[in-house]
Amino acid sequence: MIVSGDLGPGGNLGAIELADRFGVSRGPVREALRLLESRALVRILPRKGAFVNSLKDDEVGVTMEAREFVFAALAELAAQRATRSELAGLRRELQRLGKLAANASTTPNEFKLATYAYVQVLYGAARNARLNQIMRDLSEGVGHAFGHLSMATQDMRQAEYEAYRDLTEAVAGRDKEKAHALARHMHSMGVARAQQLQAAIPAAVVEFRGRRRRTRPLSATV
Q1: Where are the beta strands (DSSP E) in the chain?
Q2: Predicted confidence (pLDDT) at residue 187 exceeds the cutoff of 80
Q3: Is residue 160 exposed (0-12), middle (13-18) or buried (19+ Cβ within 10 Å)?
Q4: Which alpha helices (H) appear in 54-128, and where do they start and end?
Q5: How far apart are CA 42 and CA 57, in angstroms?
Q6: C-beta of residue 95 within 8 angstroms of C-beta of residue 114
Q7: Which one of 46-50, 167-171, 189-193, 208-212 scores highest in mean pLDDT?
Q8: Between residues 63 and 4, the one the model is more confident about
């Protein structure tokens, strides 16, 4: 529900309501919320409840920061270790990204899934299983939940494609320093685009008065 956008930033995740919705007891719901909290998707506030995180929240920011460094390290290793076959694979995935970016009917989710296919080739070329797993863990929550925001418009998708094109050239040219720098830059720019878009989307407003919680629904959607 969070990844699909049904529950936006600031949205309240009431254990009772979720238990009723999915036909389970509150125990599994509480465990699920704690798992989402460990993935930086949710924050749990004592005596207030659980809420969907936004890109402005500290935990998300820390996770994105770590993700940027790991992504850059994997790109640097790929520049050193990629085989001819893997470079050909990167170019195939890049070509697919280019076609999707040029198509105005491409959805953000379609483009996001295509970027996943590209980075899987990139991460495989790095030949570092530990860093690969760390990246997967960091992306499991925030990457899936916020990634589409950096690709919401055709201009954003075109910018993302051009960043991947430059990264591919650096990896193919065995320029590890450039690959590292480009990876960091494209990650930070993607986060900046997502933050800009998220700031334009009205979030749910949650008010607390004593022990009673009142939630005002979204006034508009984008």
Answers
A1: 12-13, 42-45, 49-52, 205-209, 212-216
A2: yes
A3: buried
A4: 58-81, 84-102, 108-126
A5: 10
A6: no
A7: 167-171
A8: 63
Residue 34 or residue 203, greater confidence: 34
Whole-model pTM above 0.90?
A: no
Q: To 10 degrees, the CA torsion angle through 198, 204, 207, 212?
A: -140
d(CA 68, CA 139): 11
Alpha-carbon distance of 147 to 125, in angstroms, equals 22
Q: Edge-to-edge strands of the sheet including 12-13? A: 12-13, 49-52, 42-45
Q: Which of 204, 203, 194 is nearest to 60 (CA)?
A: 194
Distance in angstroms (rounded) separating the CA atoms of residues 220 and 222: 7
Q: Exposed e or buried b for every residue in 58-81, given b needs 16+ CB within 10 A?
A: ebbbebbeebbebbbbbbbbbbeb
Look at residues 64, 37, 67 and name the one whose alpha carbon lies nearest to residue 52: 37
Is 42 in contact with 29 (CB distance < 8 Å)? no
Are residues 15 and 3 in contact, defined by beta-carbon separation less than 8 angstroms?
no
Structure tokens at 194: 């997502």
Structure tokens at 139: 């992306």
Smallest CA-to-CA distance from 164 within 97, 107, 102, 112 is with 97
CA atoms of 193 and 111, how far apart (whole Å): 15
